[in-house]
Amino acid sequence: MSITFKKKISSTSNIRLPPGTRLNSNGTLLLTSTGISSLDTFIGGGLPIGSLLLIYEDKNSNLSDSILRCYLSEGIYNKHDLCISALRNDPTENLPTKEENLSSTENRLDDENEKMKIAWRYENLSTIDSSSTSNIHYDLQSTKPIPNDLIEQIKIHKITWNDYQQSQSTLSYRNYLLKSLQKLLTNDYSSQQTEKRILRIGIQSLSLSLFDDKTSNHTDELFAFLYHLRILLRTSLATCIITLNEKSKLFETLADIVFELKISNLIHNDYVAFCQLIKLPRLNTIQPFIPDTWDIGIKLIKHRKNLVFEKYSIPPDLSEDASRDDKNKSLTCTPSKQLDF
C-alpha cells in the first residue's frame, strides 16, 4: 500500500510577491528566473530565493560570463538590485537586452521540425521543454543598451579590487568581500524587511578573487567563504551565482545548484558546449525535482543570438512493449518458407 502526502496550499491571491518572482508548483519555494528560460526547466523552474548556484567554468570559453550577464539583465528588467564582484571585466557593461520574436513558432531549428526516419520512436519526445521555447530571450550580441529608466529604478552595488585597495583594509580580499556582503544582506535585503526587494549577486571567478599571496593553498578560504555566504543567503531575499575555475567536492556540499560547462570538440556538432548537472536544490521538500537527464547540450541560436539548453541524450527504450519489427519471429536455424529479399 502506497501512501502519498500532498501539501495543502492556501490561497495566494492575497499574498503580494516581490516583482519577478513566483511560487513553485508546490507553493513551498519562491523562485526567480536565471534569465535563460530553457535553463530554468532543468533546475526546477528557476532559482529559489536564498539559494547559491555554482558554475564550473571552462577555461577556453567565456560561456559562464554569458550566463552571468543574462542573469543580471533579468534582474534589471524585474527591478531587482544587483551586486557585482569581478576581476576580469565588469559584467554590467553591455548587458544583453530582452528581445521578443513575432511568433513563438518561427525561428526554430530545422532539425526540430524534421521527421525522424531512423529513430522514429523518439519522434514524439521533445528535446526542449515547452517553457524553454519562449518567444522572449536575451540578445547576447545586441548593440542596443538597456533603457536608462529601468537602470535608474534599481541599485547596483560593485565590490571591486580597486575599492579593496583604496580602503587600505588589513583584511584579505576574501574577508573584505564577505564583510561587504554581510553588511548589505543584513541591513537592506533581510527577509524581515518591510519592503521586499530582491538582490541578485554575481561573483566572477571566485577562486581568483580570493587568491592570497600569504597562503599557498586557498581551498580552505574558499570553503569558509561559501559556508558563511550560504548562511547569509538563507535569511535574505537574495540569490547568488558564482563562477569557479577550480573544482572540488567540498564546494559542492555548500551550494544548492552546481553544474559544469564543457566546450564541445565534436566536428559538425550543433552544440557549442555541454552542461553537466552535478547537484540540484533540495529545499523545503522531501521529494526534490529530478530532470529527465543530467546531461545537457547548449546551442547558440545564431539568428536569435541567444543560448538554449536542451537534453542531447535520449535513454534507450527497454520496456517490454517497445515497438520492434518482426517481434514474433523465432530465432531458429530452420529456413523460412517465405523469403523476402
TrEMBL record:
<dbReference type="GO" id="GO:0033588">
    <property type="term" value="C:elongator holoenzyme complex"/>
</dbReference>
<dbReference type="InterPro" id="IPR008728">
    <property type="entry name" value="Elongator_complex_protein_4"/>
</dbReference>
<keyword id="KW-0819">tRNA processing</keyword>
<dbReference type="InterPro" id="IPR027417">
    <property type="entry name" value="P-loop_NTPase"/>
</dbReference>
<protein>
    <recommendedName>
        <fullName>Elongator complex protein 4</fullName>
    </recommendedName>
</protein>
<feature type="compositionally biased region" description="Polar residues">
    <location>
        <begin position="330"/>
        <end position="341"/>
    </location>
</feature>
<feature type="region of interest" description="Disordered">
    <location>
        <begin position="318"/>
        <end position="341"/>
    </location>
</feature>
<dbReference type="GO" id="GO:0008023">
    <property type="term" value="C:transcription elongation factor complex"/>
</dbReference>
<comment type="similarity">
    <text>Belongs to the ELP4 family.</text>
</comment>
<comment type="pathway">
    <text>tRNA modification; 5-methoxycarbonylmethyl-2-thiouridine-tRNA biosynthesis.</text>
</comment>
<keyword id="KW-0963">Cytoplasm</keyword>
<keyword id="KW-0539">Nucleus</keyword>
<dbReference type="Pfam" id="PF05625">
    <property type="entry name" value="PAXNEB"/>
</dbReference>
<dbReference type="GO" id="GO:0005737">
    <property type="term" value="C:cytoplasm"/>
</dbReference>
<dbReference type="GO" id="GO:0002098">
    <property type="term" value="P:tRNA wobble uridine modification"/>
</dbReference>
